[in-house]
Write a structure and sequence with these properties.
9 strands; globular; single chain; about 325 residues; alpha+beta; two-stranded antiparallel ribbon; 5-stranded antiparallel sheet
Length: about 325
């Protein structure tokens, strides 16, 4: 019996309600998505890997809090099952946003608005977002550990030789050098105040957003939790799927700095942006490790995408150095 059959059987036992499977939408290393009919509504059943309890918990708790506080612009959580680690959530209409400057600023405003639906009692109970950092030191350590991890996991194939060399000869020495420079800053170890910490989806961007009636809706809260707003600005401006044009960088950043949620995070953002540029490079490379056929043409495209991202983001880093 398949996982989905077990879920349906268990759900019928628990609730006495019928789930009709329509089709499997996506299968990934992290889990599976199914389109189903639940209580006469077309919905999404999201099944997590059995050992991946933290992603399931983050998404379930985030949607539960946002739903109960009447935040409209994310999926409604219809049902969850802790034993089988699955959620049944609202299906959002697929109108993908255009990753232009207006969207970037609108997304920042969306995040600020979302904070109004995280009550103090909720925030006090929340866990940290995936790879959350609350000081410059913590941000740097996160990326150093990721660089070492990716370097260890990459094979010695000819296809990955250049990437391995770049991590060991460029990224890690640069991070160590940057660390020595940052240690001279008396705020290097300083942790931001709890009042400045925000609820973060931690994977925000055009890739997990929809537009409906000119309003932004977001989904995929598997990495969500408490995090530094400076890191969120990095995600908005240099996410590989929506990297900003260098000519528009200062204009959009100035607009974001007018928002209460982000205005005190701008200086820290400028410091950690070069760090997170390398993190995104490493995240893209991690996609190579997840390829079923490492060494294939498709896996080679992943490596090329990582290096192309570095080239495309270099001019943004030059702007930050000049500020």
């Amino acid at each position: 019996m398949s996982n989905i059959d077990l879920i349906i059987k268990k759900h019928l036992e628990d609730k006495g309600e019928k789930i009709t499977l329509i089709k499997e939408i996506r299968k990934s290393l992290n889990g599976r998505l199914y389109k189903i009919k639940y209580k006469n509504k077309i919905s999404i059943l999201k099944l997590y890997k059995s050992e991946d309890g933290l992603r399931y918990y983050r998404e379930k708790e985030s949607l539960h809090i946002l739903n109960k506080n009447h935040f409209e612009f994310c999926p409604k959580l219809f049902y969850f099952n802790n034993a089988f680690k699955y959620l049944i959530i609202e299906e959002l209409k697929e109108i993908k946003p255009t990753p232009n400057n207006k969207f970037k600023f609108d997304l920042a405003k969306y995040i600020e608005n979302q904070q109004n639906y995280i009550l103090p009692i909720d925030k006090n109970k929340m866990i940290n977002a995936s790879e959350a950092g609350f000081s410059i030191y913590e941000h740097l350590e996160i990326v150093k550990k990721k660089a070492s991890f990716i370097l260890e996991k990459l094979t010695s194939q000819a296809q990955t030789k250049e990437a391995c060399k770049f991590i060991s000869h460029e990224i890690l020495p640069w991070l160590n050098s940057y660390e020595e420079k940052l240690r001279l800053n008396d705020k290097y170890f300083y942790k931001i105040k709890f009042s400045e910490i925000i609820f973060s989806q931690s994977d925000i961007g055009v890739h997990n957003s929809f537009i409906n009636n000119h309003k932004i809706y977001t989904f995929d809260y598997e990495y969500a939790g408490l995090d530094d707003p400076a890191k969120t600005i990095c995600d908005i401006l240099i996410n590989p799927d929506q990297i900003i044009n260098k000519d528009d960088f200062n204009t959009v950043l100035e607009k974001i700095s007018t928002l209460k949620t982000f205005k005190n995070a701008i200086d820290r953002f400028k410091i950690i942006l070069p760090i997170y540029r390398f993190k995104w490079f490493l995240i893209i490379l991690n996609g190579y490790l997840k390829q079923d056929q490492q060494g294939s043409e498709e896996s080679f495209k992943v490596i090329m995408k990582a290096f192309n991202y570095l080239n495309n983001s270099e001019k943004i880093i030059q702007i930050i150095k000049g500020l």
